[in-house]
Write a structure and sequence with these properties.
This protein is 32% helix and 19% strand. The two termini are 38 Å apart. It folds into two domains: 302 residues, Ureohydrolase domain (Arginase, Chain A); 72 residues, no CATH class. It has 391 residues and is α/β, with parallel strands linked by helices. It is globular, with a radius of gyration of 21 Å. The strands form two sheets. Strands 1, 2, 3, 4, 5, 6, 7, 8, 9 and 10 form a ten-stranded mixed β-sheet that branches.
């Protein structure tokens, strides 16, 4: 598929702002789609940055269409780490005649990239673009886990049109459906009605309050390690650290916490796409939010380049398997520990048919604390919830 038809080159003025130094910065090391040049060759490419310049369905946040170039302004000036592999910036998805045209272009682009094992980083526009990202997996008929960092659930009403506050309902209602599990990180209870919480529980989705995660941020690592797709609403970061959002609120993750979360996610071999949405330069203060998102993207690049290829596989001596007997399961719960990274997984009991259908889902990331819980003859909540989904 020729995806170049969907793109316009990166704004040329950004290159005038990027200093040329003895030690190259990202603006000099990225292969960038520039006016007058051929569209980047994707052969051998590992990571592709994509801008979205459409905010027509961003509720109360018009102006976020210009977020991608504002992030590039700071991103291009950062120094790369000790990274290998080819990284490209494909430019911005052209705004379609209708918002649905933009969704189609983004979904088609991501479908092509993911199928060819290129990791896309999407920046800009409203969080309704998460629906287009999900659509790429649906076209590939790939069952996924999705993690969203957001102060609310974006369910809206079933009759509402698709926008940044209803996209999740549309994803859930899609048939056939390829969403295996949904995880929300950092919701704030006063923005969520009880019916929405009840629905999440009924669907066996995972939801974690901001206050629960604030003092235990490492607990987010196994949650994001399980994601195929991660969508980050900049409104989930407190206004003091990220004022560039018309819906910014006093509480939220700190800038440091946001960087750590996306680095955790990018280090996972399973994650195949990530998006940053709702950055609105009209409300930013001295470029603070754009600068933060640029650093978050940097941490994604850092995490990706530190992947250890340690997702559990059968008959590998790089993993240690522990079988913990429990009173509820005679065969016990199987725990798997990586010798490379000391990371933990649990193997959830399911039938042969489900093992084939959900091959990348019945082995669930967990923590050492989950192992200790099982040793105390208690079933970890994480294991039990996944068991219910697989039965």
């Amino acid at each position: 598929m020729d995806i170049s038809i969907y793109f316009e080159p990166v704004t040329e003025s950004l290159f005038d702002e990027t200093p040329v130094t003895t030690h190259p910065r990202l603006g000099q090391t990225l292969i960038i789609n520039r006016a007058g040049n051929d569209f980047p060759d994707l052969t051998g490419v590992q990571i592709a940055i994509i801008g979205v310049v459409d905010d027509r369905s961003a509720v109360n946040n018009q102006g976020c269409a210009s977020g991608a170039d504002e992030v590039r302004h700071y991103l291009y000036k950062l120094y790369p780490g000790a990274w290998s592999g080819i990284m490209v910036d494909l430019g911005n998805i052209r705004q379609g005649h209708t918002i649905n045209d933009t969704y189609f272009a983004l979904a088609a682009t991501l479908e092509s990239l993911i199928a060819n094992k290129v990791f896309p980083i999407v920046i800009g526009g409203g969080q309704d673009m998460t629906f287009a990202m999900y659509s790429a997996y649906a076209h590939l008929q790939k069952i996924i886990n999705m993690v969203v960092v957001d102060p609310m659930f974006d369910l809206g009403e079933s009759s509402d049109e698709l926008n940044s506050q209803t996209y999740l309902s549309r994803i859930i209602m899609q048939q056939p459906n390829y969403l295996f599990n949904f995880t929300n990180l950092g919701y704030q209870t006063y923005y969520v009605d009880q019916q929405a919480l009840d629905l999440m529980k009924k669907l066996l989705f995972d939801t974690y309050r901001l206050g629960t995660l604030h003092g235990n941020l490492p607990d987010t690592e196994p949650l994001v390690r399980n994601a195929d797709l991660l969508s980050f609403d900049i409104g989930a970061i407190r206004a003091a650290d990220a004022p560039g959002n018309a819906n910014a609120t006093p509480n939220g993750f700190s800038g440091d916490e946001a960087c750590r979360i996306v680095r955790y996610a990018a280090m996972s071999d399973k994650l195949s796409a990530i998006g940053f949405f709702e950055l609105n330069p009209l409300f930013d203060r001295n470029g603070l939010t754009a600068h933060l998102v640029a650093e978050m993207v940097w941490y994604v690049l850092e995490g990706f380049n530190n992947r250890k290829n340690d997702f559990p596989v059968a008959d590998s001596d790089t993993f240690i398997r522990y079988i913990v007997p429990t009173k509820n399961f005679d065969d016990g719960i199987v725990f798997i520990k990586s010798r490379k990274t000391d990371r933990w997984w649990m193997e959830v009991v399911c039938g042969p048919e489900n093992r084939e259908k959900y091959a990348s889902h019945y082995i669930v990331p967990c923590t050492y604390n989950d192992y200790q819980t099982a040793c105390d003859n208690e079933i970890p909540d994480r294991w039990w919830q996944m068991y219910q989904k697989l039965m």
